[in-house]
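Z., the sequence and structure:
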Amino acid sequence: MSETNLTPARIERPTGLAMTMHNWKTALKTQTPYLMTFGIALWLGAYYLFVEGWELPRFNKLPGPVEVITEWLNPDPDWGMSLFTPEYYDHVVVSCRRILISFGIATGVGVPLGLFMGWSKIFRDYTFPILETLRPIPILAWVPLAILMFSGFETPVIFLATLASLFVTTLNTLLGVDSIDDDYFRAAKSLGSKKHHIFFHIVVPGALPFIFTGLQISVGVAWFSLVAAEMVSGEFGLGYLIVDSYMNITYVTMVIGMLTLGFTGWASSVIVRMVGNRMMQWRLRALALEGR
């Protein structure tokens, strides 16, 4: 008599493009994408009514959405800036390159710094007071110092964006280490794990959810710090485009720059979130088992 095979069948999970399509189909069955679409439509409707529909006094100097979108999609723009002009992409590329460099430096320094601050009390006692002293200083207060320290237009802007992003990344990583349950450390030590094993197998994975949450906030902080720096010490970029358009009274171009900044910053946050989900499949499975 043959024994019954009680081994559960292995479920093949879709990967790559199939997984992406599956996630999209699943998302379309929920109310989230429809509420997002409704929210955007509501915002555009309010924008249109305030500026072009009701022509409220406080908004009478602003270009309306119809004028902005028409100019944005115009092959021969009246104000010289649209999706069809090379200068538009020059500003976008310059800002994206600066963000990539700044965010990369902040992540490469801030994540290890936060991990070691949470891992070692001695190291934390040395570094945390310095971090907490520098963190409240507004990014614009660093502008004169950055100009004095670095030559040219590029390096000061990157320094300012890196600095703002660094504080967020470090503190969220530190919070992630502090959130790890002490039982994991006691269990690892009782099983004879060495310190470097505990660090790489408990501290780093346990802090990852907080790290990627911090990185999503960090990339947003990097964007508005970058724009502030470009307005003061820039020659190209979306921040420079916005302030230059304001100074030249080309308000349509100013709004185009602001909307481009919003979409670009949103896309960068989505990329960080996708990378985080990719690296934390174990957490997604745990949340799914919990019904979250």
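Confidence is low (pLDDT under 50) at residues 1-12. Residues 23-62 form one domain.

Let me know what you think.
H.
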